[in-house]
Amino acid sequence: MTSTLITKTQAYVDGQWVSSASGKTLAVLNPANGEHLADVPDMSAEEASAAVEAAHKAFASWKKTTAKARAQMLRRWYELIMDNQERLARLMTAEQGKPLAEARGEVAYGASFAEWFAEEGKRAYGEHIPSPSPTSRIVTIRQPIGVVAAITPWNFPLAMITRKIAPALAAGCTVVLKPAEDTPLSALELAALAEEAGFPAGVINIVTTADPIAVGDTLTSHPLVSKVSFTGSTPVGKHILHQAADTVKKVSLELGGNAPFIVFEDADLDAAVKGLLISKYRNAGQTCVCTNRVYVQRSVVGPFVEKFKAAVSELKVGAGDQDGVEIGPLINKKAIDRVDQVVKDAVGEGAELVLGGKRSAAGELFYEPTLLSGVTEQMAIANQELFGPISTLFVFDDEEDVIERANATPFGLAAYFYSRDIGRCWRVGEGLEYGMVGINEGIISNEVAPFGGVKESGLGREGSKHGLDDYLEIKYLCMGGI
After folding, report:
1. How confident is the model over 92-114, as pLDDT tens digits?
2. What are 476's strand-pairing partners?
3. pLDDT averaged over the chain?
């Protein structure tokens, strides 16, 4: 059945489907059961460089294509993605593990960026500036920056690609993409649909590899690359920033998070439980914006924990293609070993295990939804990105205290809080040092809003009208002798 979902297993460079020059391949496995799905090319740094050169060559003509023509291709790409939604979702579940309902949602979310930027690309406006001289005129135009190197993660193997590629293409840039080695198949299927949508050779290039460091370093340091867009861990993001500095590339980084979720005593507790459940356990907790620290005001700790424990205990663990499953596998053995150790360390430091806390009988890479209470900021678990189905409960007494504690982290991607006091909503929303704040909402991502963080959680914004900016340069034209 899985084989019917896959149409491409070769890399895509300069309009050609190619194998690696060495003949080496990378195996793609289903994390739910270890099934071998396919082999894709294990490409080298030299082949990544060749892809950059192909993109640079294609840029010469692509940048001259009208915004309307680019929009028509992007719109067609959107339609093709949605026409193939079920197939792409099932493929994603097979290679990444997330429940099928979530995968369907991701395909639609990913497609929305192609639809959105098809329109936004036609609005890359310049401006006329009143001149200080009566004999000159000042105007600005916005032009595509050039070749874009995009490096994407495994947790959202389709949407993280379109969120970067769609605005780049809309702006008139060409792209070389390195997808995560755990989930390259979704990227190749997207490329096949883009080819069908009419994008010219060299405009989109997909380089698959088992050596992400060598290929990534090539892309981030190549002199023909003008822009790097990366989603992943903060340590890797810092390395990329260093790599890009030598050639002064424009860089967008969407990095790690340590999201607080604050429940005030005036909150709708049932709504807060529902929002937290979605924010924390979506994709088995393997999202950069998912809740890491749950702060509950002391006066409502008892009833909130009781409601939340009951909700978590009902989550169904299993393979993503099974009916009713809400928690799929972690991505690989390294991930589940890390999650298991994090929980053991927390209990050893004094946290109370309320629920879960062990590997699931569903399979080798499955972990039970876990709930820890009595957690303090002095514990290691409070100061790291969990990336697993673990909730940690903290208690707080007042508004100022919880804002200070929520901000006491080098990360600043997403934060959430529940309150029915409009004054508090403004105060806390403004006081939290995060790029995105969900107020009485557990899911905040969409194509029309700017996605991104502050502090060590990144640079730049994706989505919204601002998502086009990172792929454009402003040029000032001074016209004299008028």
Report:
1. 999 999 999 999 999 999 999 99
2. 140
3. 97
Residue 461 within any structural domain of the chain: yes
**Domain coverage including residue 268:** 259-446
Are the beta carbons of 109 and 447 closer than 8 angstroms?
Answer: yes
249 and 271 part of one domain:
no
3-state secondary structure of 259: strand
pTM, entire model: 0.96
CATH of the domain at 163: 3.40.605.10
Q: Are residues 243 and 264 in the same domain?
A: no
Give me the residues paired with residue 147 across strands: 174, 225
The label of the residue with tokens 């082999």 reads 39
Q: Are residues 15 and 156 in the same domain?
A: yes
Using the Cα atoms of residue 283, residue 284, residue 286 and residue 287 in order, give the sign of their dihedral: positive
Three-state SS string over 119-143 comes to HHHHHCCCEEECCCCCCCEEEEEEE
Question: What φ, ψ does residue 363 adopt, rounded to 5°?
Answer: 165, 175
Q: What share of the chain is helix, strand, coil (3-state, %, to 5)?
A: 40, 25, 35
- Mark whether 346 and 427 lie in a shared domain: yes
Active site residue 400: no
Residue 451 inside a domain? The answer is no
- List pLDDT tens digits, range 269-294: 999 999 999 999 999 999 999 999 99
| Alpha helix ranges (H) inside 395-467 | 399-407, 422-431
Question: Contact, 464 vs 445, CB < 8 A?
Answer: no
d(CA 263, CA 1) in angstroms, rounded, equals: 45
Number of domains in the chain: 2
Q: Which of 419, 452, 461, 460 is nearest to 434 (CA)?
A: 452
Task: Kindly indicate the confidence band of residue 421, based on its pLDDT and cuts at 50, 70 and 90.
Answer: very high
**Residue carrying structure tokens 């867009």:** 229
CATH label of the domain that carries residue 330 = 3.40.309.10
Give dist(CA 479, CA 482) in Å, integer.
Answer: 7
445: left (phi over 0), alpha (psi -120 to 50) or beta: beta
For residues 30 and 97, is the Cβ–Cβ distance under 8 A?
A: yes
- Identify the active-site residue in 254, 447, 456, 462: 254
Sign of the four-CA dihedral 464, 92, 386, 241: negative
